[in-house]
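Re: your question from the hallway

Yes, I did run it. Sequences:
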Amino acid sequence: MTAFLVVLVIILFGVAVWQMNRIFQMARVKPTGFSEIASAKDNNINGYLMMGFVIFMYVLAFASFALWSDVLLPESASEHGVGTDNLMLVSMIIIFVVGILTQWLLHYFAFVYRGNIVRRATFFADNDKLEFIWTIIPVIVLAGLIIYGLFTWTDIMNVSEDDDPLVVELYAQQFNWRARYSGEDNTLGEANVRLIEGVNQLGVDAADPNGKDDKIVTELHLPVGRKVLFKMRSQDVLHSAYMPFFRAQMNCVPGMITQFAFTPTITTEEMRRNDKIVEKVRHINELRTAKSKELAAAGEAPLDSYEFDYLLICNKICGSSHYNMQMKIVVESEEEYQAWLKTQPTLAEQLSNEN
Amino acid sequence: MSAHAAQVHAVDDHHDDGHGHHHKETFITKYIFSQDHKMISKQYLITGLFMGIIGILMSLLFRLQLAWPDHKFTIFEIFLGKWAPDGVMDPSIYLALVTIHGTIMVFFVLTAGLSGTFSNLLIPLQIGARDMASGFLNMVSYWLFFLSSVVMLFSLFVEAGPASAGWTIYPPLSALPQAIPGSGAGMTLWLSSIAIFIASSLLGSLNYIVTVINLRTKGMSMTRLPLTIWAFFVTAIIGVVSFPVLFSAALMLIMDRSFGTSFFLSDIYIAGEVLHHQGGSPVLFEHLFWFLGHPEVYIVILPAMGIVSEIMATNSRKPIFGYRAMVASILAIAFLSTIVWGHHMFISGMNPFLGSVFTFTTLLIAIPSAVKAFNWITTLWKGNLQMNPAMLFSIAFVSTFITGGLTGIILGDSALDINVHDTYFVVAHFHLVMGISALYGLLAGVYHWFPKMFQGRMMNKNLGYVHFWVTAIGAYGIFFPMHFVGMAGLPRRYYTNTNFPYFDDLANINVVMTIFAIITIAVQVVFLYNFFSSIFYGKRGPKNPWNATTLEWTTELKHIHGNWEGAIPHVYRWSYDYSKLNKDETDYVIPGQDFIPQNIPLQDNEDEMDH
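Structure:
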């Protein structure tokens, strides 16, 4: 596929350059006026090329969708994400309609009004009515989008205590993630980097009773259908906790606690059975098998086959290994989650083991 | 020009404003420490192009890395030396490359190279002034820019590598050498370079503002200014308002780095020890940075808008449509540009309510932008379009500005920004709307005013066409598919995405983008050849090759200090009297000539228009 695309692009470019060269050579035969100023012939050719260009843009957009719409994220695995995706769809439709129309007008006018010797341009300097129309239409459309957007935003960012969210800390450091569950009391113990010592890698205050039942893990498990409130900390530089499948992201800032909340709605198992994901995983494994063959031929270890998992990835430049700072997220049923949580030691247990 | 015009020209009767004495110029005062705005403009352009070549070649290196992450490239070894042993790029030098690429392109090419070149060239010539208000400060401004470029380039050669915290240099990453090697001497030099750059920019901007306010020729009221001058004028004002804030941010960062203060740092545990810093906030830095950073993108795009408006009207043989609305939208954009910075920080941890406010102001800025786009399109309508290379780049500017601007509606919406923030969607958006668009403005300006810069010599038109069409196709070929990579959820500034099998299917897109990038970069060689060979061998064209109305075309081909040999021309009309008909609508006002230069008095056979 890659090789095919490469060859296709190169051939198309070659043809385009060759054709343009021919056109310009023909245009050079009979120059009228000064040779470095566009002649009637230049106007004509470039006018047609403008038309060609807008068609190129449409083809490029169409081809991109045809070839690559399968790389886009699957349906949202969180409750608020459905709303975000709707807003995205509405915005995209507006953008595409406006884009297609204005690009067409721009290039079509460039084609139709390409200069020639007899044409006389119209002295058209002002028209208040027209300008009013194209001021007021964007105003109305944008007002709609702003209101829609702000409602969506406020819904996402306002976390009510009544929802009784599960409180989990996401802790970022160069270049890995950890999560701290707040335990039975659903309250995180106080923490500060100045308290980091030995096994207490997150600097939890041992004197704070809320911290005793906290559980620190390296893989994030979430029960489906329950709101999770993430409290985020970073111990060194800025990081960003990006969970694309849940349409969730928040920066982790040293010196302050940031937060983001969402309700996961689709378990990992369900998502693995999603048609789009099944097809995507099949495609990726095809690519990986092909790649493994190449590696094997070069005497290197083959790639593992891939199975879908939700991911938390770092999305704020944080240092040399920024490109590999990730944590697996598992969304599962309440029972599975509780069973998993039970196997994790509390901070108090960890600390006493150390002593 | 007709005898008619020559006759009217004789009306100019005011004296030479004391610039008649021509003192002898040495090589040094003429070409190096020149105080002449035309020479300074050329110095800005050549320096900007040189920096541009470096910035764009850096992008070539990291595009190769992204498309073929496990391939070994000899070219890496050649350019990166110890940073690419056996042709494998080091991850931290990848970050250095994207950092310096961004810095160079934003500040050195699109701020100094674009605004510096054309503000200097056009402000005195188009308003009818002998030179800038202060030739000396203007010279100092260029040489500070030169110095800052040298410091920036020097930083590429320090032991631990150049700055690599991203062009936004967010602390703590940029403050702590323990966090990334580039935050040592490399970052110190980066900050010094930018501090010098800001001084240069401020001297230049103050000069532009004073010149536009005070040195307009008789009759050149503000409402008769060409849109280029309006754009440069407002750009300079935004620069004066916002650059000092970046300077203070840089200063505070220097203090945090070297003198133990805690403006931006707090609660940090790194490399096995706790730092003493307490109470600072990186979010404060983000506010300060983007208070410049966002106006900065308008500092980049407004001059391009002015240039495009001017070139489009001239080559359409029509007045720019809605002159007053164009001026009003420049002012509106300038005002709004200073109150939207928070849209870079929706998920920085600042109060979500603040996010709502910034969503509101950000989406408002789409209104003046839409008005501008529609006015440009209407300027083409019923025109007589002269497809000179400058015109083609201007049309392409409107195209990329629309495409890139529309995706801004998504990024400016805080709820949607959550999931595309810092992904390749953003990279695609700003490259189209400010990178490519502003470069098109720069290139359009070079093609259009080349004869004015190099004494009547013109660039080769056919090479210009090849350059244009390949660039136009290539630019979309690079950045349109990039939106898909972003919407797939891939973060920017990743050295490779091979650690995420989920992103394996993006390999094709990366290859396609890189091939388009290689082709687009390659065709810039055509431009460079055309540019440099035309300086020496370009054919000399007529005095006013594009039949334009503005004053710069009334000067002689040969450059003289003071611009006009005799008296400065007076101005009697706005700069857009193209294809204006006489009262009976039988012919143009000046028979057989479809334009009326600004220095021609109102004729008996025309109506005075109130624009």
